[in-house]
Write a structure and sequence with these properties.
Chain lengths: 192, 656
């Protein structure tokens, strides 16, 4: 290692240490507005993803977005953002929150919030035979059974989409949605 | 360096996020959403942001081309390898009064005093956005940000995970290949590496005998992004570009056109740290290094023409910038400083004589800006200035004052007064170039005209008065109108003086650069964006601009500074025809530029996009559909210009 390299390395380490101290104590920014952005995405999913007709009980059944969570952090901003909205097909959008996956049977979208991330295997089992769009917000969600994952990086909310999982659930993604998302595949140890 | 949209503040529009398009949703920052802010809506400056989706939707294949989508930007293809772009005038062969940043890296050439556009052409697959500011930005970006700033921003590595390959084949521009791999090193660290090659000709071929492509280019590089707890981010980036191109010159003495060959290598490395403490403060430290190696040679005449684009010299830059932002109740304070060390080394030849072909220069600067809320949610005052030291022009104070009035959440009025300067380039202080010649006759001496810089050219200054109005009657409809009055002092001009050389006997007219003329520029720009449904969108731009020098004694080299198309407009639209098939078209009108002999032209582009599967995208398109060819840039004394031709292309993109 040359002298210049050593100086550079030392500076980098010093810089990092000096700045990590306050960084560790700071918390994530604005969970409320983050969920408003995620809610807007969920609303867009109703337009850019096609559900098979069998996903709805009746022709005039509402479009139900279930929020699986162990607190109320996600469902409240999502419900307030989407209240009174209808899908492109004219269905009323309903937001329902629950602590257990079994309470969300019949939902077209199930959003598994951070607080309920551990419930993914149960939810996968629950919705296996249904055309349910499973959406999450934890690292690796779309690689381990989910269809769409929200990723916060660089202060913006991005999408990860697993096209194979969408196919398997009978959901048709539009190209416009896929083009703004990162495409991922199942990890080898993904739940089935 | 901060982006304009972040720097000049964001609004408090009560925003229904569900009305945003998918690409807008992916661009809105969480902190902006927390203030219910629509990006840019309350920015007290004429700013246009072109998101990458919007650029690709209309089939643009280069960064410079994409600027055609912004209002008030005159983009001209000069030849295969070279572009020029002007804002509010000064659209000459060199973009002299525009500052261009690529991921925060300034690509303005201090030797030639112009933008090296070749360095801006990052692969569009990696592009996140282009921000265009019309009007001065010197209070933050310093000298040379006189008429505008273009900031090209690439995606962070997290947004380019996975593999992507694209192939674009076109009738005129040839083959372009791009490949990218993005991966993750650990929980905090993402990276991408990429390679792009192109063999293009852009329709510029004054020598029918040459069969080789006119521009061969390879670009490669990597970017690493690290993020710790959302509060500390590091970016490490390095890029390398090599170009070989054909170009043409006219020897002024004989008016013979020559075939020239150029090569250009550029390498850059950048490191950036952003630390953010909740919303109270943030700190950005950025350092970069870049190295250029450029050569142009031709049988007859060499050096100048490539140099006009900042790609014919050797040089290196080291640059360090620090910016600290602090929110203090009703005030928002940003301050920082920077240091830049530049070395330039020009190959000398018989045609260009420089007293100092090699020089180094240091620049130092400090800036501070305070954003004061005068009446909460209604009236904001932004005061700021940069203090910059440059070796040729000494200390310069570059202040701005901006007022933003938001009577209702759907309407913004803003006004600004700013001072800006352009510092003379190395060539403008130092050069002697033979410029034109008239052969002798039995009754008269031969005459030679030289372009001479005697080292006395000082800074050109601008006091700009701007005002604007933005109106969003509906979340899917925005209207943006800006007017400006630019008062330029001591712009460069040429002064003739005669002497006789004895061996051989020649009458020499020295056209000497001096701060010769004041000028006034005024005009207006407008844009409208409308998205009536999720499947249909429209945008239109219009600009009307005047630039009038006080003197009528202008010579070719400086006359082109004042040559501009007075009127430009464009209309574009995209719609989803059937599921997963999108059609788009754009019509541009550019007025004639009499001073350069360029006639007015329409440019019509159309593209069809088909996405049969999430992994696949196919594009088919036509550019310049209305005419087989037209000139965008006029031939000037030492340069032969290109003609834009009708072009058909096909492109395939695969992600896996």
């Amino acid at each position: 290692m040359t002298r210049l390299h050593r100086i550079f390395a030392a500076l980098t380490v010093a810089f990092t240490l000096a700045l990590l101290a306050p960084a560790v104590s700071a918390t994530s920014l604005n969970p409320f507005s983050e969920y408003k952005i995620k809610a807007a995405y969920l609303y867009n999913f109703t337009k850019f993803i096609e559900w098979p007709p069998a996903a709805f009980a009746q022709n005039d059944a509402p479009f139900v977005i279930g929020v699986l969570e162990h607190d109320a952090a996600a469902s409240q901003p999502i419900a307030s953002t989407l209240s009174g909205k209808t899908t492109a097909g004219g269905r009323r959008i309903e937001v329902r929150s629950a602590r257990a996956a079994s309470e969300l049977a019949g939902c077209q979208i199930v959003f598994i919030a951070r607080s309920a991330a551990a419930d993914l295997p149960v939810a996968l089992e629950q919705f296996r035979a249904q055309s349910t769009l499973l959406v999450g917000e934890t690292t690796g969600f779309a690689q381990s059974g989910g269809v769409v994952n929200f990723v916060v990086a660089n202060d913006v909310v991005r999408l990860e989409i697993n096209p194979q999982r969408a196919n398997r659930a009978g959901l048709r993604l539009s190209g416009a949605l896929a083009s703004v998302a990162l495409l991922v595949r199942d990890r080898e140890d993904a739940h089935d | 360096m901060a982006l304009a949209s972040r720097l000049w503040g964001q609004g408090v529009l009560p925003l229904d996020l569900t009305e945003l398009s998918l690409d807008e949703l992916g661009a809105i920052s969480i902190s902006a959403a927390s203030k219910h802010a629509q990006p840019l809506f309350e920015t007290p400056a004429a700013v246009t942001v072109l998101l990458s989706d919007e650029i690709r939707r209309y089939g643009y294949s280069t960064v410079a081309d994409a600027l055609r989508a912004a209002p008030g930007v005159n983009v001209t293809a000069v030849d295969n390898a070279h572009w020029s772009a002007g804002v509010r005038g000064f659209n000459g062969i060199t973009s002299t009064k525009l500052l261009v940043l690529v991921d925060g890296r300034n690509i303005y050439s201090p030797m030639y005093g112009s933008v090296a556009w070749a360095k801006a052409n990052i692969p569009l697959e990696d592009l996140d956005r282009i921000e265009v500011v019309r009007g001065p930005g010197s209070s933050v970006w310093g000298a040379n940000a006189v008429n505008g700033i273009v900031s090209v921003v690439s995606k962070d590595a997290h947004a380019t995970q996975g593999n992507l390959v694209s192939v674009r084949e076109s009738v005129v521009e040839g083959l372009q290949l791009y490949a990218r791999h993005g991966g993750q090193l650990n929980d905090h660290t993402f990276y991408r590496v990429y390679l792009r090659t192109s063999d293009t000709s852009r329709g510029f071929d004054p020598w029918p005998d040459t069969t080789e492509p006119n521009l061969r280019e390879i670009t490669t590089g990597f970017r690493v992004d690290q993020s710790f707890h959302d509060t500390l981010r590091f970016t490490w980036q390095a890029d390398y570009l090599v170009q070989h191109y054909d170009t043409g010159y006219v020897d002024p003495a004989t008016t013979t056109a020559y075939h020239g060959v150029g090569s250009f290598h550029t390498f850059s490395a950048i490191g950036r740290m952003v630390w953010r403490d909740a919303e109270a403060q943030d700190l950005t430290v950025q350092a970069y290094f870049d190295y250029d190696d450029g050569n142009v040679s031709s049988a007859g005449y060499r050096g100048l023409s490539g140099g006009a684009f900042g790609t014919a010299e050797d040089g290196r830059n080291f640059d360090l910038d620090v910016t600290h932002h602090l929110a203090l109740g009703s005030q928002d304070l940003i301050w920082g400083g920077g240091f830049r060390n530049t070395l330039v080394d020009v190959d000398e030849n018989a045609q260009i004589q420089l007293r100092r072909p090699r020089f180094t220069q240091n620049r130092y600067n400090l800036f501070v800006q305070d954003d004061i809320s005068v009446v909460e949610k209604q009236l904001r005052l932004t005061l700021g200035s940069k203090l910059e030291r440059h070796h040729t022009v000494g200390w310069q104070l570059l202040p701005t004052a901006r007022l933003t009035y938001t009577p209702t959440p759907h309407q913004t009025f803003w006004a600004a007064v700013s001072r800006s300067v352009r510092s003379p380039s190395g060539v403008e202080r130092d050069v002697r170039i033979p410029f034109a010649a008239i052969p002798g006759s039995p009754t008269s001496l031969p005459v030679r005209v030289d372009l001479v810089a005697d080292g006395t050219l000082n800074e050109e200054t601008l006091i700009a008065y701007e005002a604007g109005w933005r109106w969003a009657p509906h979340p899917r409809l925005t209207v943006d109108v800006t007017g400006y009055d630019n008062d330029y002092d001591r712009l460069r001009n040429l002064r003739p003086s005669y002497h006789v050389e004895t061996n051989p006997p020649t009458l020499v007219n020295d056209l000497t650069l001096y701060n010769g003329t004041d000028a006034r520029g005024y005009g207006a720009e407008a844009s409208v964006q409308w998205r009536p449904s999720d499947r249909l969108r429209f945008a239109a731009t219009y600009s009307l601009e005047y630039l009038k020098p006080e003197t009528s004694q202008l010579y070719a080299a400086t006359a082109q500074d004042f040559a501009l198309p007075k009127k430009m407009w464009s209309v574009r639209s995209a719609f989803e025809v059937v599921r997963d098939v999108e059609a788009s078209c754009v019509l541009n009108y550019v007025d004639s530029v009499e001073e350069l002999g360029v006639r007015s032209y329409y440019r019509f582009d159309a593209q069809l996009t088909w996405r049969p599967k999430p992994e696949w995208e196919f594009n088919l398109g036509v550019q310049n559909a209305f005419d087989s060819k037209h000139e965008e840039f006029g031939a000037i004394s030492v340069y032969t210009a290109a003609e834009a031709q009708r072009n058909y292309y096909a492109r395939v993109q695969w992600r896996f």
